[in-house]
Amino acid sequence: MRQIERSIFDLRRGVPVLVRGRDRDTLVAPLEGLTDETLTRLRATTGNPPALVVTRHRLERMGIEIAADAARLSLTDGDSAQTVVAWACARHVEHSPHQRPTDVDRESHAALALMRRGLLIPAAVTATIDASRREAVQKLIDDQTLLAIDVDRIEAYESSAIHFLRRISAADVPLADAEKSRFVLFREADGVREHIAIVIGEPEFWRTAVPVRLHSACLTGDLFGSLRCDCGEQLRSSVATIAERGGGVLLYLAQEGRGIGLANKLRAYSLQDDGLDTVDADQVLGFGDDERDYNVALEMLAQLEIRRIELLTNNPAKIAAMSGGGIAVVQRSGVYGRLTAQNERYLTAKAARSGHWLDNVLGKPSADVAMNGKG
């Protein structure tokens, strides 16, 4: 576990890590902080030319179609760091004729998994260690200059990380719309994300369907009242609604920007200012339509011993995730903010491309939906 935490920490600092596979060792460097010197060091350390590993979403924006989730693009000595970063996440880019996508190995998949866990751009520069360089690389590992981590360990962590969610602390925090509220903080094992369960009023966990809102953190909207989204109004409306119902839980999830993190969300905002909608902007950066994983919400509900819920949401994916995880969603209630000139394109994209139920906001009638326990 500590190796995973250290590898994420190193990558977020721009420091390469070594991913050890059964048949090969691969040096992995993040896109953030990539320089020409980094590329030169990768070549010298590994004895092999590096490659750029990117997701299928990013390749599609480059006009390259593949069937797999990711692929490698070869790099040459003439490719600068600026060019490589552009291939990974710029809106307007032309790929070179020498770039032919090739299949990725387990080590490359593991590299992308580490980038996502670290809330970095989902791309990496990788190079396989040549036999002639193994002794020198091992010396770097022995000197603790370079961290090595087994690919098996990364894969095992990805499949089981959610089960290491720990309840850290709790306190009563009176809110403007719900004076009786208790904040319970949960922390993921790698320490990157912390989530809060806000228990409002006196929810009857055992006898009724508990009103629950899954709210992904939005610093710009929740705290600063950004007009680009409706998140802040949804948050406050949910707290008030749950209080009016007598009690329930709001799960405040550290999934900024639909799971891509604040830095990437701001990058996506810049792309939206250039004419893209929210989905296309995320795809330019290499992300899918929605990177959120609601397993953390399921684990929080399990630790709170909540099994039946009334879900406050406009998002069908949340209902599917809860139902698929064994939570009985007996009813769905919408939760809305105002339609403004600044957020209309964002809300329209969520409705048209992600299936969110926003007819009430966008000018069409819609009713709350009884789920009959099936989601």
TrEMBL record:
EC number assigned by the record: 3.5.4.25
Keyword rRNA-binding attached: no
Binding of GTP, residues: R213, L214, H215, S216, A217, Q234, E256, G257, R258, T278, T313, K318
Active-site residues, Swiss-Prot/TrEMBL: D290, R292
Cofactor binding remark: Binds 1 zinc ion per subunit.
Pathway this chain belongs to: Cofactor biosynthesis; riboflavin biosynthesis; 5-amino-6-(D-ribitylamino)uracil from GTP: step 1/4
Alphabetical list of SUPFAM superfamilies matching this protein: RibA-like
Entry-linked Gene3D superfamilies: GTP cyclohydrolase II
InterPro entries hit by this protein: GTP_cyclohydro_II (IPR032677), RibA (IPR000926), RibA-like_sf (IPR036144)
Record field: catalytic activity: GTP + 4 H2O = 2,5-diamino-6-hydroxy-4-(5-phosphoribosylamino)-pyrimidine + formate + 2 phosphate + 3 H(+)
Keywords: GTP-binding, Hydrolase, Metal-binding, Nucleotide-binding, Riboflavin biosynthesis, Zinc
Top-level taxon of origin: Bacteria
Named cofactor requirement(s): Zn(2+)
Entry GO terms, CC: cytosol
Presence of the UniProt keyword Transmembrane helix in the record: no
A Pfam short name: GTP_cyclohydro2
GO process terms (BP): riboflavin biosynthetic process
GO molecular function: GTP binding; GTP cyclohydrolase II activity; zinc ion binding
Annotated binding of Zn(2+), by residue: C218, C229, C231
Domain GTP cyclohydrolase II: 170-332
Function, in words: Catalyzes the conversion of GTP to 2,5-diamino-6-ribosylamino-4(3H)-pyrimidinone 5'-phosphate (DARP), formate and pyrophosphate.
Family indicated by similarity: Belongs to the GTP cyclohydrolase II family.
Protein name (Swiss-Prot/TrEMBL): GTP cyclohydrolase-2
